[in-house]
């Protein structure tokens, strides 16, 4: 049921203009942010995960080769960011029209998104190097710094009465640049030199990265579409105020998804170095137990969603509580299945990863087209859950087939290492 300021039943004569303005601003910010993150992913060309995969595998046996990979990765990452940001800025007008942004401010918003892309890509480059080296303490420090700086800058805008979409985008870009600086100085000197060093893009390290990352690029582009596509579909088919309600629920669910992001960050380097059925099974047992332990506090916190949203955002956003609960099913599903999905990396299945994400996007599009017109916000959330289940099922089946094939081999035969940089089968990083 809608309130006097709800999108469903129209508007009363009550002075709801402030809530309307906030919800419209949230809708604009969320749509531009979604477009920027899609562009960031396209610009990355799958390099982030590919770099982690090879740097982590090479660290113990060939650290010099790992640093060479960092040099090539940095050049490719920056080239992709510059090219994509340039296109966004050059096509700001048409892109604003495509995203259904206001005609007067839309091109400026896309220009700001292009600048934000550059800052976010630079921060992501350095964060990827920290992640590949398993420097998780440094990663936590940079994240805390980013959050604190963002809160301070947003508070300053609020105090000055300038908390609007364009200044908020500028705050995001400034925080990303500052985080990049902190990440850079947290790297050891040899690795900072590797980030700055020139590198031949057609070297062996470059070819290895590009060969593996091209499928991860397809996967990552489809994955970020999956994260944001439900919001963009709603922006086409529902009123802006409804989009603002859904955007709040989606943003809160993404905040809760930090558990899954942390798990992915920690597990990818160690999973990339696995080889052999016994190592895979031991990793799955530990990973699933860890996921269950991390999911429990999220489940226990679900009843707190309504009082939190009403207290922090106001009664006008009470409609987002039910949608948030459905989106939390997506978060919990991801958390429980991440250990299985990451086995596609050491099993050398980049094409399958891309195919699974393609299936997810197709499922979201078809289910969204069927459910959103009839069920509105809940239709979008249910479509997202269906998409996650479809793609995960595809990878889980392939992983099970791979494990069964390994079991059928003669006793004493180890699975072949996924590449020449991987350590001895199954021993390293397992207990």
Average pLDDT over all residues: 78
Helix content: over 70%
State the total count of DSSP E strands.
Answer: 0
Radius of gyration: 22 Å
End-to-end distance: 53 Å
Q: Low-confidence parts lasting 5 or more residues at pLDDT below 50?
A: 1-21, 413-431
Per DSSP, the total helix count is 16
Number of domains: 2
Based on Cα principal axes, name the global outline. Answer: globular
Could you walk me through the main structural features you see in this protein, from its secondary elements to its overall organization?
By secondary structure, the chain is mainly α. It folds into two domains: 23-212, no CATH class; 238-431, no CATH class. 78% of the residues lie in helices and 0% in strands. It is built from 16 helices and no strands. The protein has helices at residues 17-44, 47-58, 63-90, 92-98, 106-132, 136-159, 165-186, 189-196, 204-237, 240-256, 258-272, 277-301, 305-313, 320-342, 350-375, 377-407. Helix 4 (92-98) packs across helix 5. 45% of the residues are buried. Mean pLDDT is 78; it is low at 1-21 and 413-431.
Essential attributes:
431 residues, mainly alpha, 2 domains, 0% strand, disordered C terminus, 16 helices
Brief synopsis:
This protein is mainly α and 431 residues long. It has helices spanning 17-44, 47-58, 63-90, 92-98, 106-132, 136-159, 165-186, 189-196, 204-237, 240-256, 258-272, 277-301, 305-313, 320-342, 350-375, 377-407. It folds into two domains: 23-212, no CATH class; 238-431, no CATH class.
């Amino acid at each position: 049921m809608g309130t006097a300021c709800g999108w469903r039943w129209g508007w009363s004569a009550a002075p709801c203009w402030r809530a309307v303005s906030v919800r419209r601003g949230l809708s604009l910010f969320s749509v531009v942010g979604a477009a920027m993150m899609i562009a960031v992913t396209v610009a990355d060309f799958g390099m982030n995960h590919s770099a982690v995969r090879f740097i982590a595998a090479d660290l113990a046996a060939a650290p010099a080769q790992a640093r060479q990979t960092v040099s090539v990765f940095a050049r490719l990452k920056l080239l992709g960011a510059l090219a994509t940001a340039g296109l966004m800025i050059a096509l700001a007008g048409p892109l604003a029209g495509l995203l259904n942004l206001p005609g007067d401010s839309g091109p400026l918003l896309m220009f700001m998104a292009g600048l934000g892309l550059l800052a976010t890509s630079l921060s992501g480059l350095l964060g990827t190097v920290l992640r590949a080296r398993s420097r998780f303490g440094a990663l936590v420090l940079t994240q805390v710094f980013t959050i604190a700086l963002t809160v301070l800058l947003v508070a300053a805008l609020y105090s000055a009465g300038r908390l609007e979409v364009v200044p908020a985008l500028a705050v995001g870009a400034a925080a990303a640049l500052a985080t990049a600086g902190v990440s850079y100085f947290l790297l050891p000197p040899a690795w900072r030199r590797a980030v700055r060093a020139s590198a031949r893009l057609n070297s062996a390290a470059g070819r290895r990265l590009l060969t593996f990352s091209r499928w991860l690029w397809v996967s990552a582009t489809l994955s970020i579409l999956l994260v944001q596509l439900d919001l963009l579909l709603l922006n086409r088919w529902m009123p802006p105020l409804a989009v603002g309600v859904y955007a709040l629920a989606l943003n809160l669910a993404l905040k809760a998804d930090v558990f899954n992001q942390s798990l992915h960050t920690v597990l990818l380097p160690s999973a990339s170095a696995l080889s052999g059925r016994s190592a895979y099974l031991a990793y799955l047992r530990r990973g699933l137990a860890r996921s269950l332990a991390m999911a429990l506090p999220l489940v226990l916190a679900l009843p707190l969603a309504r009082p939190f949203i009403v207290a922090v955002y106001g009664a006008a956003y009470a409609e987002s509580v039910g949608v948030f609960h459905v989106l939390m099913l997506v978060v919990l599903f991801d958390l429980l299945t991440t250990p299985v999905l990451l086995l596609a990396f050491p099993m050398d299945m980049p094409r399958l990863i891309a195919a699974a994400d393609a299936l997810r996007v197709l499922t979201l599009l078809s289910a969204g087209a069927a459910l959103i017109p009839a069920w509105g916000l809940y239709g979008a959330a249910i479509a997202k859950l269906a998409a996650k289940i479809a793609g995960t099922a595809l990878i889980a089946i392939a992983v099970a087939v791979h494990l069964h094939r390994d079991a059928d081999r003669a006793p004493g035969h180890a699975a072949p290492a996924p590449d020449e940089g991987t350590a001895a089968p199954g021993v390293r990083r397992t207990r």
